[in-house]
Amino acid sequence: MASKKFIQALDLLESEKGIKKEIVLDALKEALEKSYKKNYGGPESIIRVEINEINGKIRLYEIKHVVDDVNDEDYELSLEEAQMINPKYQIGDDVVTEVDPEVFGRLAAIQTKQLLKQKIREAEKETLYNEYIDKKDDIINGTVDRVEERFAIINIGRTGALLPLNQQIPGEKIYEGQRIKVYVSDVERNTKGTHIGVSRTEPGLVKRLFEMEVPEIYDGTVEIKSVSREAGDRSKIAVYTSHENIDPIGACVGPKGSRVRNVVNELNGEMIDIVEWSEDPVVYISHALSPSDVVHVDIDEEKHSALVIVPDNQLSLAIGKRGQNARLAVRLTGWKIDIKSVSEAANEGIIYGEDAEFEKSFEAEMIKEDEPVIEESFEDKLSETDEELQENFEENDIIEEDSDMYQEDHDESEASEESEEFDDYDDYDEYDDYDYDPKYDEDIDYDEFDKYYDEK
Fold first, then answer.
1. Which residues are 244's β-sheet partners?
2. Which of 194, 280, 316, 423 is the 20 to 30 A CA-CA neighbour of 324?
3. Whether residue 421 has pLDDT greater than 50
4. Cα angle vertex 395, ends 391, 400, to 5°?
5. 176-188: per-residue pLDDT in tens?
6. pLDDT one-digit tens code per residue, 232-244
7. Are 41 and 110 within 8 A, CB to CB?
8. CA 278 to CA 287: how far, in whole Å?
9. Which residues contact 111 (CB under 8 A, 6 or more apart)?
């Protein structure tokens, strides 16, 4: 049933499909076992299959347990039947009987073949998945096998990968037979097989291309911290190194720009901005808005946002065409960025720079120092006010008493003077012949009288 040609076929299958020979042999053993149980034995039968890996010879054994009382003939054998095979068998022994593989009829052979194919397909899926799951988020080389309106089929070795239209670089022309680098974005295993998704628009493609072109990135001397990309148009990458003597941007650019040029050519002419990463968000955001200049960056930690002030003539450059530069900077840094020109900031009354720092420090100092002083002075003023009110009340009482006494004394003195003046009124009769003058009338205003004589 099997021969050396069968073993040679297994070797060929292993080299082409990557399926190990041991996996196929185990699948064949399982297929023969299931086929025999289904056609000649029973579901409880115990079958053992041996295959010689050198000459391909297959040996099939059926095992039954010797018992006193047989309940299931599939795996039990009576003592009398066992001793007919060999008198030495006793109850509890296992009787191993070899079955000639030639007993398999045409139907059993077809079933075995189908089971073997199924097992081989499952093994192929598993092998394929295990191979490409390690290549996820990495670059692989492929050849374009077929180009359709909505997708392209890329031959990546043992299988084909689907490159959808929305994962192709806009404006890029792909043709059959083209050698192309693709980014493995997804590896999924399902009932239909292993699905491998590839892309040419992922930011990870830019990162992997720089790793291939820049030795300092590959060995970890220079690190790519972040990548933001709008495929086919422009990308930004932030690089960093802890080595003082290495320029991370210069390492990525390469001699005469050769390294970055190779990446740009692979991406169909896509522009690439390389900026230096920094722990300080103010510095990092300033770098991310390159190539525009930045006057000031104000950070709001709670809202994770930043207000950026740029010169009037740099506003359009900072925002970019259709907001592209600002969009890429936001994705690169992870901060919300609001960009304003110097004139806009002045019109809106936004204070920045040294004035803003002074105002913040002054406000903080006032809050720190003035609050307890206000409370203490308020309490002191309350106590002082109470004392003053009490003193004023006492003084007012004394003044009222003094004024009452003064009024009484004044009234008494006036009364005594009037009595002294008019007690001898009768003595004035001798002046009856004196000429009358209206200014001596009793109804005269004596104030005017005094004023009259003063004038005289």
1. none
2. 280
3. no
4. 150
5. 999 999 999 988 8
6. 999 999 999 999 8
7. no
8. 9
9. 31, 34, 35, 38, 39
